[in-house]
Every structure is written in C-alpha cells, then in structure tokens.
Amino acid sequence: MRVMRARHCKRAYLGRPVARHVLMDVLRAAGHAPSTRNGQPWRVVVVSGAARDALARVLCAEFDRNVPPAPDYDNRPPVLDATIERRAAEAGEGVLVAKGIARDDAVGRRQHRRDNLRFHGAPVEMIFHLPKGAPPGSFLEMGFFVQNVMLALVACGLGSCPQYSVTHYADAIRRHLGLHDRLVVCGLAVGYPDETMPVNRFVPERADVEDYVTWHDQAP
After folding, report:
1. CA distances from residue 116 to 32, 78, 84 in whole angstroms, order as listed
2. Coil/strand/helix, residue 125
3. Nearest 10 degrees: CA dihedral of 167, 127, 76, 108?
4. Minimal CA–CA distance to 129: which of 179, 73, 185?
5. This prediction's pTM
6. What domains appear along the chain, each with residue ranges and CATH number?
7. pLDDT tens-digit profile of 137-171?
8. Would you say residue 87 has pLDDT above 90?
9. Is residue 194 classed as helix, strand or coil in its secondary structure?
10. 161, 122 in Cβ contact below 8 A?
C-alpha cells in the first residue's frame, strides 16, 4: 500500500541512466498481471540512449510541423462528467503552476506540451502496444500490466509518467519502431526523478473512497 500511495507522475528526471537488469526485473515481475485465459497480450518497446533521442526527435518534428494529432483510440468521451472535468482542470493547472507557467503564457504552454514528446527528459521511454483491432478487453489487461510496471518502478526507487500524448503521433511511432499492424496504447517515461524540481512535488488531490465505492452487504 505504501508503494501505491507513493506513485504519482514524475515530470523531471536526473541524467542518471537506468540499468537494463533493473528494467528487466521490473518487466518480468509486471508480466504476472492477469489476462484472459493467460493470453498476455501486452507488448512493450524500451528505448534508451541514442534510440531514445532519435524517437524524441521524430515526435518533436511532428509537433513542430503542426501535424494534427491522430491517436489510435480516444481516451475520453466527447463530453466529460462535471466532476471529472473539474479534476482534470485542477490537475492540469497544478502542473503548470508547479512548472512556473502562467495561464496566459502561450509559448510556455506549447513548450510544456512539447516536453511530453521529449519524455520529460527521462532517460528511458517505454512504448506499450497491442495488435491492431484489439478488443476492449485487451486494454483492461494492458492496464493491469502497465500499472504493475509503474508500481515496480517505485519499489526500485524509480519514477514514471504514463503518456497518452505520444500516441497523437502513432503513425510516426509505428514507422520509426517498425510496429507494423500494432496499436499504440501509451508511452511511459522512466527514470530517477529529480525531487528538487517543484513539478515532482505536485500531487493531484485524490477522491475520498466514499466517492467511488458503494457497499452492498444485504440482499435486496
């Protein structure tokens, strides 16, 4: 439970590299996630070093050319519930405030969006993918796996930030990484967090358990 409570998105990283054997241990442990009939549909590409830099350049080039976002799937409905909309707005504003970006700073906000495509400076980026046309249930199983990865990283003293943002350029990722006929689910920035940076100390408010749990202990 301490590990779960400790996990939150990190958006600033030290230059310290992450040893491959640590990442292997994390991914091996994460593979114990449940899946229907033990199908284990998740797949992940891990990029670091020069490969990480090359992928960041590809994504930033798409952004700089104002290529319209074209993710493989929607991660939110067209109209959000008022409570979810409020939480999203507060979390987004909190990150910008922590980074010292004013509401009317258009240049700063654009740079903030671009930072996502540089993986917030993390030395490792993971790209999670599924077969093209994967059924909705596969996303549930991928979610189990990705959450295992994030929690295991915390247990190893590492931080991460899951990124739907990189999927805006899914076609570019497929071309660059050779992921033909694959559906790009998300990215994950991974590294040793720089805890001196205010943005890493920003933790969005979490709902009270009473807000999302309903108890039934008697038959209707």
Report:
1. 29, 23, 22
2. strand
3. -60
4. 185
5. 0.96
6. 2-74+117-202 (3.40.109.10)
7. 999 999 999 999 999 999 999 999 999 999 999 99
8. yes
9. coil
10. yes
